[in-house]
Design a protein that fits this description.
Length: 291
Amino acid sequence: MKIFVQAEVKKALSTQKSTAQLLDQLGMKNSSFTLEQRLQTFILGKYEIWSEENMSKSLKDIVPPQIQQKALDSIPDLSRFIVKKGKEYFDSAEGKRRLEDMLDDFFKERGKLINLIQMFIGNEKLIDKIQPEIIKFFEQSRTIDILSVMLVKEWGNLEKWDIEKIEGMIGRETIKQWITEKTVEMLPVASILNKPVRELTANFSDTIVEKGVPIFVEKGAKYVINHFQPLFQKLHLDDIVEEQVSSFSVSRLEEMVVSITKKELSMITYLGALLGGIIGLFQGFVTVLIG
């Protein structure tokens, strides 16, 4: 039994057909699309239930303490990253143009002020004076400290926000769309189902055949043996047979009895004839020997 099942399982796992093709043969058309839709519906349903249950809870109540601590511990690194990127941006040509635009907007209605400043700095452009100072600000170590303090404070305020507020800011439909996209990205159902079964099971087919099948056969056999009697009791086979026999007409029962009896009597007749012939031959043989 075990060898037979192993051979069949090995044959099934080595097929070049995809899971989708096998499901199509079983009548499950468009299985990848259907499974993907059901998976998305299931996950979105779980999100709906979770959001309803936790709508009034704050972020601090939802996020595990270890993650909160990890977020706080990562703030200095985040500050250094922001400062580094800020310095790189304002030191670039694009950053310089952006600063010029900001200055132009600021002094647009302050013509006299810009003229006054220009008197002090001479022929140099104002941007050439301001850009180096901004870069120096980003290079100072205390800038990271200032930014870290600000981020810690903002994180403390953010922890007090409830889920309803966060969902309202982002938008429930936006969140659901993001969940749907991430589900497809993390679980590419169509891609998986369209791969050959042989390719999907290449790394563990031998384990399934050599270890999984024997365990399955053994457990299955024990289950059948242990549940054989209760299963028959649940099926009420005695009642089913009795009901079926009771549903037969008298003529049908007579016909069945006569048919069975006729076959049995025929066998008895043939057996009697055979025995009679053998006995007759034996008696004749004995008579010849004695006579």
